[in-house]
Amino acid sequence: MKFLNESRKDYLQFQLDEGHIDADPINQFDAWYHQACEHSPFEPNAMQLSTVSVDNHPSNRVVLLKSYNHDGFVFFTNYNSQKARDIAANPTVALTFFWPSLEQQIRIEGRAEKAPESVSVAYFNTRPRDAQLSAWASDQSAVVNNRVDLEKRMNEMREKFTHGVPKPEWWGGFIVVPCRFEFWQGRGNRFHDRLVYELKNDDWVTHRLCP
Ligand SMILES: Cc1cc2nc3c(=O)[nH]c(=O)nc-3n(C[C@H](O)[C@H](O)[C@H](O)COP(=O)(O)O)c2cc1C
What we know:
Layout: H1 25-39, E1 46-52, E2 58-64, E3 67-69, E4 72-78, H2 82-89, E5 92-99, E6 104-114, H3 117-124, H4 129-137, H5 147-160, E7 171-185, E8 193-200, E9 203-208
Antiparallel strand pairs: 1-2, 1-5, 3-4, 4-7, 5-6, 6-7, 7-8, 8-9
Bound molecules: flavin mononucleotide (FMN).
């Protein structure tokens, strides 16, 4: 077996300690996210979303975080997609951010709920016209014969919606209401920092995990 050791890196830039974290994990997320926007500018809001299907099959994919606050973390998608079907059967999900240039990872676990329709409409209305049309044209996660059929469907939508594109009823947001965070800071010799926040009786309690 060949090991991929050519790319081995030691993580030496930063450290994370209990004395310098916010008591509120959303504020801590906010601090790291702003650093990521500055130092890891290619899609810092890209996050892995993991779901588990009705027959206990796990899967994950990248989605874009579009908003966050103390209510939770919001992304948008097709409500008929595989991920949405998984969430309907099992709303417990996990999110992971990885910002290589900061040697940081954040893991979030929580419960996904459909966002209010007004939020989905408001966000949909900010999308460029072609992205709005693509939401209509794509039966996300369904099998399609070929690219030509997809383009045909897109052209049909272009002709159908000549003035403005309404949000499809099957498209919208999910808000992930968090119950656990882990902030991971890479350190030298694989001896990393891991600080966890868990919600216990409405309070966030923190502890450190071995790397
Ligand atoms: C950088 C990046 C951003 C993406 N953002 C989204 C998104 O915000 N919403 C979405 O539904 N899919 C997004 N996708 C596509 C998903 O990864 C995935 O292919 C799609 O949602 C279908 O997943 P599913 O079949 O598991 O439901 C993105 C992919 C990448 C690589």
